[in-house]
Task: structure prediction
Amino acid sequence: MNRETQVLKTDAVTVEAEAAEAPPQPQRQLLALTGNEAVAEAIRQIDPHVCAAYPITPTTQIMQEVAQFIADGRMRAELVPCESEHSAMSACVGAGAAGARVMTATSANGLALMWEVLYIASGMRLPIVMAVGNRALSGPLNIHCDHSDSMGARDSGWIQFYAESVQEAYDNILQAVRIGEHPDVLLPVMCCMDGFLTTHTSENAEILDDAEVRDFLGKYRARYSLLDVDNPVTFGATDLPNAYTEHKYQQVEAMKKADAVIRAVCVEFGAKFGREHGMLEAYCMEDADTAIVVLSSTAGSVADMVDTLRAEGRKVGLLRPRVFRPFPAADVRAALQDLTAVTVLDRSHSFGADGGPLFTEVRTALFDAPHRPRVLGRVYGLGGRAITGGEIRALYDEMETDTAPTFRFVGVRE
Amino acid sequence: MIDVINEGWETLPIGGVIPEGGTSAAYKTGDWRGGGKRPLLNHSACVHCLHCWISCPDSAIEIQESKMLGFIYDHCKGCGICANECPPLVKAITMIAEEQFETTL
Result:
């Protein structure tokens, strides 16, 4: 992901030069790592109090490496090997209620098995950080990438990041800890990356110095802790109709505040480490007539086609939301409202709805705009099916016609 | 003690946490009896065996110096275990329909 983008404001060279003046110089390493390896490295550096583990393709390797780090004496975390993902998330909730910094990782059916506990984690306001390798939900059984797992969890009250690259997967994990633990937020964070396409693909990634990660994160002090015997608290008591609504509204406000906190943490991360990721990434959008909106690694392929089409003189752009919850609706509206047509690519579908989850979200964001483009929804890449350059070119082509249907599947065999 | 009925969302502790101990005493579970029944003690029949006191799941039997005094209706849920446990030859506790009393608690 080397392209120049509009949200990449920080001059990386300047920041590194400034950092170099302050002794001792941080030992950053540029390594070829898979997404799983980079996330495991981030977890090692964070060294949370508790990690819960249950294996599932394609994220097994993350907690496997964490177990190795602990065995090698490179981490002090308490690793809880569980008998299911439901138990793993429950262990996270228990440890979180005790006041611990907690992390885990999962995918697909593992995430599905965590379902009820996802809501308990967010409802109890525990800033658990979880890496998700996006994978299709069974059935039929499929281990490859799509977003049906985490998109199903979009209403669970978790903050959701979608990483395009290995570097971003690593950076997101570090930022997620700061964002989730912020006193205005106190929500769990799901850091998604594409299964296999990112979890198992080696890319260059800069790994920060352990000490500067520690300084960036600081210590976590939970607002309430079951282990604080001087201030006894009850977690998980019955919440009847006279207070449940207020507690749910607190989550609404926490999500709103998370928006500002994410932006602030991104700026601080950018200033310190030279990589500023925004709520969304806009590529060639300044004068674009048409654009594709897409999450995660597919943005790389779309950006490639944008370069090709731009070389042919066509005004096309790309918008990649990096954060899906809280959804940056105002930014999406500002970026898209003056275009003539927009195609939203969804790597999952909401059966029976007008389109995929990203499509409906983008269309809703544009509804109040004084002028709005035609918004087309396209479902692609289910169960790991590749989307080709030719297919992406055709998506841009059809935006220039009047006959394109509002919704269709890309590449479905007739 | 948190006032869950009147506290607004901004001041209500997050996550449904109850940030203090011993709050069950202030939680009047007596209103769970709803339109059910409540126990009534026949003082002259009671032999103070305290079977009711040891069986009550809500500590709603009031005793003093090992003598049964009556029921704490603020916490009695009307389950009727006390009336069931009261020995057959004593039968000092009867479950009476709630509407026969003026107040619900």
The helical segments of chain B are 51-55, 81-85. The CA atoms of residues 73 and 105 of chain B lie 5 Å apart. The longest helix of chain B spans residues 51-55.
